[in-house]
Amino acid sequence: MKPASCAAALVAAAVLASPTGPFGTPAARASGTAALPTVDMEAIVKAAQIDPRRADGTLTPGAKASVLLVERALRAQHLLDRRWVDGHFGTTTIAAYAAYQRSLGHTGLDASGLPGRASLVRLGAGRFTVTRLIGPGPRVSTGGAVVNTRTRDMLAEAERLLGRRLVLEQGSYNPGGDPTSAGTHDGGGAVDISTKGMGPAARTAAAGALRRVGFAAWVRSPRQGDWSWHIHAVAISDTDLSRPAQHQTGDYYLGRNGLADQGPDDGPKVTIRTWEEYQRH
């Protein structure tokens, strides 16, 4: 066999023996089956909370690629105009996603426009796969209040950091409850915590611990509204959040106080992380 022919034969044999196909391409791709792109659910849910609260079209860092994939899928469903496929999960994309959720038969919290696990995986069928899946978990009772298991675990970790128990005044999934809550407790992730027996330093420490584990948390005083001293906390990226609670988490990222006046954040300064980010940190 001539040297050139011998070399060609060796290359062919190596290609046939390799499970990855020629030039390192996976065998599945070499056969015409390309791998689907991925959508980071954590990034998508974060953007869906923050972007609607922005005054401009600034994108949420790290979310653009995933948001674009979701927006293209919504456009393919004839739910989003081409001009809104821009990587910004603003109010128009929220409305389109809510319409998609309703088309699947979802209602209530499952059709708020905040992507949930089931709807996001369904939207991605044949278009993208979903990574870093998150969910609130089942509803449970703790301290006489109803929360979901994600919120319960976050509260337990905050208590561990503080070295003291936190007493709930109001839990989650409480539509029509305390009217001063403005609907923030209608869904999951929202709790009010008693500050009875706490001085200013203890209140601030408790709010700081809650923030460290992934809550948007503020100490509320009587001068801010028709309520007594307490801590209001909302679990960032809880996919059961009511719309008002979604707005509060978005405002928290943007340095606001979570109240209707959208004043500056008056809570302790900590690095903002979700529960999942805290666990990985």
Walk me through this protein's architecture.
With 281 residues, the protein is α+β, with helices and mostly antiparallel strands. 38% of the residues lie in helices and 12% in strands. It is built from ten helices and eight strands. The strands form three sheets. The chain has a four-stranded antiparallel beta sheet with strand order 5-6-8-7, sandwiched between helices. Strands 1-2 form a two-stranded parallel ribbon. Strand 3 (139-142) and strand 4 form a beta hairpin. Helix 3 (41-50) packs across helix 9 and helix 7 crosses helix 8 (200-212). Residues 1-32 have low confidence and may be disordered.
Task: List the SSEs and their pairings.
Elements: H1 3-17, H2 27-30, E1 38-40, H3 41-50, H4 64-76, H5 91-103, H6 117-123, E2 129-131, E3 139-142, E4 145-148, H7 149-162, E5 168-170, E6 190-194, H8 200-212, E7 215-220, E8 230-235, H9 243-253, H10 275-280
Parallel strand pairs: 1-2
Antiparallel strand pairs: 3-4, 5-6, 6-8, 7-8
Helix pairs in contact: 3-9, 7-8
Instruction: Please list the strands of the largest sheet in the order they lie side by side.
Output: 5-6-8-7
- The topology string of helices and strands comes to HHEHHHHEEEHEEHEEHH
Q: What is the CA-atom radius of gyration, in angstroms? A: 24 Å
Number of strands: 8
Biggest pleated sheet = 4 strands, antiparallel
Helix content: 25-40%
Strand content: 5-15%
Mean pLDDT: 90
Multimerization state: single chain
Secondary-structure-based class equals alpha+beta
Low-pLDDT residue spans = 1-32
Number of separate helices: 10
